[in-house]
Amino acid sequence: MKVKVLGSSGAELPGYNSPAFLIDGMVLLDAGTIGASLKEGAQWEIRDILISHAHLDHIKAIPFLADNIIIKHKRHSVTVFGTSSTLADLRRHLLNDRLWPDFTRISASIKPVLRLKSIQDGKPFRVNGYSVTAYAVNHTVPAVGYIIREDKSGRALLYTGDTGPTERIWRHAADVHVAIIEVSFPNDMEKLARMTGHLTPDLLKAELEKMQRPPAKVYVTHPKPQYIRQIRKEIAAMRKKTGVVIEILKDGETYKV
Ligand SMILES: [Zn+2]
Ligand SMILES: [Zn+2]
User: Fold this and answer.
1) Distance from the CA of 57 to the center of ligand 2, in angstroms?
2) Domain, as residue range, for 113
């Protein structure tokens, strides 16, 4: 499995894009960034999008992808997977013919551009050669993380999405090869992190201790670029102290799972 990071930042500044991870060119994990980072041809390859929660920094590229598909008279649909609560928010607040056209009804063929498909916490589902399960995590709005396993290789990726200290997803992480876990704030902002449903490096360390066996490789997503230097230092110190192989993701890079 190859994961291309279209964005992995907890805020937008030049060079820092909102979270979106393209798996093997076809399946997008969160959709904070698409058109700002992917050329047209590569955008047409995306057929499935897994959404962790309805916050704007994780969904905001979807309306523009739909628009690009229509502009070029492309006839395919993109399936957007999320919990019923997340999809209801997308319908009610975004694709509502006010903020943006309702692309679940618009199409260049008989198929609509966007198809919303509701998923259930803890219930595996199939996406184009992968087995995927969502687990509820602890954020300020209903949110899930995902475990994605490629049928062909058996390799598995865990992605937390946005979360504060949480429990359930770690119980299913025993045979995961790579984890992408959020760390938004530095250690001295723990109060704000907890209040807003996010992690610090110290809180991440406590989360890793909840796992039977931490994955071979841990990547950090969602750091606030305003505090990136401090977070970088604290993650480096943690790596030294715990021996966990951990690094902060870089936008534009491709990682092997
Ligand atoms: Zn969020
Ligand atoms: Zn976020």
Assistant:
1) 5
2) 2-256
pLDDT per residue rounded down to tens, the chain (257 residues): 999 999 999 999 999 999 999 999 999 999 999 999 999 999 999 999 999 999 999 999 999 999 999 998 888 999 999 999 999 999 999 999 999 999 998 876 778 999 999 999 999 999 999 999 999 999 999 999 999 999 999 999 999 999 999 999 999 998 999 999 999 999 999 999 999 999 999 999 999 999 988 899 999 999 999 999 999 999 999 999 988 999 999 999 999 99
Beta-bridged to residue 218, according to DSSP, are 179, 246
Q: pTM, whole model, 2 decimals?
A: 0.96
CA of 73 to the centre of ligand 1 (A): 33
Which residues, including other chains, have CB under 8 Å from residue 126's CB and lie 6 or more apart? 132
Q: For residue 224, give the CATH number of its domain.
A: 3.60.15.10
- Number of structural domains, the chain? 1
3-state secondary structure of 205: helix
What residues have their beta carbon closer than 5 A to ion ligand 2?
A: 57, 162
